[in-house]
């Protein structure tokens, strides 16, 4: 059973489209992190959110932490082929970090 | 090196053999994690070390799996009597733990992983 549920599992879109991916849990987290992983590499941190209701923007990426600190979303505006990768959310609790199964995004030129 | 280093990068072994995977974390990072990633899947938590505390072994899938962290630095993940279902990429990450209200917020820095293939 996944502590963190991510959806959709797969997403294939055209360059220029917008998209949102979700990370949901029944547990409350003190923080949530989003990572991006490219083939053959380890995941790389994109953002950490710590406050319920927090919104963080990173260029074309917008991250939101739910008010109850149980869920988060990642919105990408005008997706580009370089955004292709596996997007993982990770939740901190009890001093360890657990990951969701990820959303595999493909952006076609 | 400045990053997390893992070795070997690739390991092919026969079913039933033992394997050891090594992780050199970033110097000064107190936390060290092992994850397993099967083809096309997300990260499965295996084990977590934090300073001198007892490790969190709750993710180890069977007693064939074990891990040590010597001197608070290098870690070795050992898989005994390997099975074909053990084939995966084993990722190590290290972190400086920054706790807020009891939870970690430190960034995890990952190595490139060790790809294990059990024939």
Walkthrough of the structure:
The complex is a heterodimer of chains A (109) and B (119). The termini of chain A are far apart. Chain A is globular. In chain A, the strands form two sheets. In chain A, strands 2, 4, 5, 9, 10 and 11 form a six-stranded mixed β-sheet that branches. A five-stranded antiparallel β-sheet of chain A has the order 1-3-8-7-6, with no helix packed on it. Chain A is built from no helices and eleven strands. The mean pLDDT of chain A is 92. By secondary structure, chain A is an all-beta fold. Chain B has 119 residues and is mainly beta. In chain B, strands 2, 4, 5, 8, 11 and 12 form a six-stranded mixed β-sheet that branches. The model of chain B has no long low-confidence stretch (mean pLDDT 90). The chains are: A mainly beta (109), B mainly beta (119).
Number of strands of chain B: 12
Order of helices and strands of chain A: EEEEEEEEEEE
Helix content of chain B: under 10%
Q: Please report the distance between the alpha carbons of the first and last residues of chain B.
A: 33 Å
Helix coverage percent of chain A: under 10%
Structural class of chain A: mainly beta
Mean pLDDT of chain B: 90
Cα-to-Cα separation, first versus last residue of chain A? 36 Å
Number of distinct helices of chain A: 0
Oligomer: heterodimer
Overall geometry of chain B comes to globular
Radius of gyration of chain A from CA coordinates? 13 Å
Structural class of chain B: mainly beta
Largest sheet of chain A: 6 strands, mixed
Short summary of the structure?
The complex is a heterodimer of chains A (109) and B (119). Chain A is built from no helices and eleven strands. Chain A has 109 residues and is mostly beta strands.
Give the topology, please.
The complex is a heterodimer of chains A (109) and B (119).
Chain A: E1 5-7, E2 10-14, E3 19-24, E4 31-37, E5 44-49, E6 55-58, E7 61-65, E8 71-76, E9 85-93, E10 96-99, E11 103-108
Parallel strand pairs in A: 2-11
Antiparallel strand pairs in A: 1-3, 3-8, 4-5, 4-9, 6-7, 7-8, 9-10, 9-11
Chain B: E1 5-7, E2 10-13, E3 19-24, E4 31-37, E5 44-50, E6 65-69, E7 75-79, E8 88-95, E9 99-100, E10 103-104, E11 109-110, E12 114-118
Parallel strand pairs in B: 2-12
Antiparallel strand pairs in B: 1-3, 3-7, 4-5, 4-8, 6-7, 8-11, 8-12, 9-10
């Amino acid at each position: 059973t996944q502590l963190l549920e991510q959806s959709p599992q797969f997403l294939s879109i055209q360059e220029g489209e917008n998209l949102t991916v979700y990370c949901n849990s029944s547990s409350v987290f003190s923080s949530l992190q989003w990572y991006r992983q490219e083939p053959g590499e380890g995941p790389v941190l994109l953002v950490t959110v710590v406050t319920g209701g927090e919104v963080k923007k990173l260029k074309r990426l917008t991250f939101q932490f739910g008010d109850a600190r149980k869920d988060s979303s990642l919105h990408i505006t005008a997706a580009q082929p370089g955004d292709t990768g596996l997007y993982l959310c990770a939740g901190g609790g009890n001093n360890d970090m657990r990951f969701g199964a990820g959303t595999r995004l493909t952006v076609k030129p | 090196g400045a990053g997390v280093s893992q070795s070997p990068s690739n390991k092919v072994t026969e079913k039933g053999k033992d394997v050891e995977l090594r992780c050199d974390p970033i110097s000064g990072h107190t936390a060290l994690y092992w994850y397993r990633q099967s083809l096309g899947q997300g990260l499965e938590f295996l084990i977590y070390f934090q300073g001198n505390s007892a490790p969190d072994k709750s993710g180890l899938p069977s007693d064939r799996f074990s891990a040590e962290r010597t001197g608070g630095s290098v870690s070795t993940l050992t898989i005994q009597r390997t099975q074909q279902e053990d084939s995966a990429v084993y990722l190590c990450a290290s972190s400086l733990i920054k706790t807020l209200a009891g939870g970690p917020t430190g960034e995890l820095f990952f190595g490139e992983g060790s790809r294990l293939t059990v024939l």
